[in-house]
Automatic annotation (TrEMBL):
SMART domains xref list: HTH_XRE
Domain of life: Bacteria
Domain HTH cro/C1-type: 12-66
Keywords of the record: DNA-binding
GO molecular function, one term: DNA binding
Name used for this protein in its record: Helix-turn-helix domain-containing protein
SUPFAM superfamilies on file: lambda repressor-like DNA-binding domains
Length: 69
């Protein structure tokens, strides 16, 4: 996982796991498609800022925590 996209995905997965939340639960809370979340977490999709904002809000973290190491 060397690309910025895959790094964001890893941080997203770690934040989600820390809250014991499933992709489905995050999807419902954030209003983001499960496939989109899965794609971001695996580094196959590059997330839009709006999507990251929704995910950060649902995880109760600042968006910077998903963007920065």
């Amino acid at each position: 996982m060397n690309s910025p996209t895959s790094a964001i995905g890893l941080r997203l997965r770690l934040k989600r796991a820390k809250t014991n939340m499933t992709i489905e639960q995050l999807s419902l809370l954030a209003g983001v498609n499960k496939g989109t979340i899965s794609g971001i977490e695996t580094g196959k999709r590059s997330p839009q800022n709006r999507t990251l904002m929704k995910l950060a809000k649902a995880l109760k973290v600042e968006i910077e925590e998903l963007l920065n190491e």
